[in-house]
Amino acid sequence: MTVIRTLTFEPSIAVSVFYWLIGASIAELASAMPTAAGVYHWASITAGRHGRICGFFAGWWNFLGWLFALASVCQIVGAQTVSMYAAFHADFVTQQWHVFVSFLVVTWLSCGIVLFANRILPFFESLGGFFTITGVFITIIVCAAMPVVKGKGHAPNDFVWRDWVNSTGYSSNGFVFLLGMLNGAYAVGTPDITTHLAEEIPRPSMNIPKAILAQFIIGFVTTLLYIVAIFYGISDLGTVLEEGSRYFPLAAIYRQATGSAGGSLGLLILSFLPLFIACIGLYLTASRTFWTLARDKATPFSSFFSQVSHRYRNPANAVLSCAILCTILGCIYVGSKTAFSAFVGSFVVLTTLSYLTAILPHLLSRRANVTPGWFWMPAPLGYTVNAISSLYIATFIVIFCFPFALPVNVPTMNYNSLITGGLTLFVAAFWIWRHKDYVGPQQVRFADNAMLAKDAI
Asked: Model-level pTM greater than 0.85?
């Protein structure tokens, strides 16, 4: 664990502001070029004559980031499931293989829903939104009321609002503040998630920017209120840190806030349901990204992975490939939690790199390579937003590669630079091999578009 306060208020607010700017940059590109390829397509256009190679790297960085995000959330749901069982079995000792078994169930159940329940996916996504909003407000009320009901009282105001705990080993609190922004970035750093469904929703040029705006407004307000509530419910921070360093810290926080295992279980269920549905959404995003790469001959066996199933009305081969890759990452978790964390921890760096590959060329080309869509920022505002977004990404990619704490050892090392650099070398080697056959982003064929849009979101 690194820092307490920097995991919450100030860094979360700061990183949210920067991601609002990145979201605005993404929204105007998505409005101008609504395509399931997302940043992969935009980088190919904004970079002009360098568009082929920029788009290739942006697409692979984005896909790998979303794949790691999928594995990460499946692991979180798996750990949460085991924590719910452990809450009522005091002698139960959680092992990594317990989490892995739950991980597999979550991974393949989510995959099965995406593959075989295409017609009701809109219902699942609406249900996820309902569970998220309802669960947040119920949790806020419970965490605010139960400490008083149990007679324990709330945490002191100074603990919530003023106390600063720097347990990182870094002497500079300013740097620790910046490093703590990684946690907020993990929570809010997904402005392109809805763009990958552009070919499956009505009026995407208008609806995708609206979806991005709604995502950031709702996410910021609910997250801030939620953080305040759970901090007031903490009575023993040492126990939270000790248990959280092993598997799932939220279980310890809920148990302290409610004063009972049953109350903790109820709140965990409220967070479990939207998280599980989030796994379904991540399958949609990762598989659609991989599918768009395959249809443009940017993947191995592209003719196989680019197929759209006429029976299930989705890119079934791409969905299954994501499930297999996610399972492989889960096997790594059993062998080494450190290695697994190294892969999934690079999610923020990889996705923001892909955003930079689209936004920076857009800025350097004086925003001249894109025909404006429904949402388009005026020139002075657009230049400012794009410039700040690019500077933020370039700066924090470096900061997010620093170790989380000092002194550094093998389990606590930050492997973001190693994983990102190694995967970039892999993509570069693949570019050398495939660049002659690579055709670049193409709009989806009308027949496939009609088939997908009929039942999907």
From this structure: yes
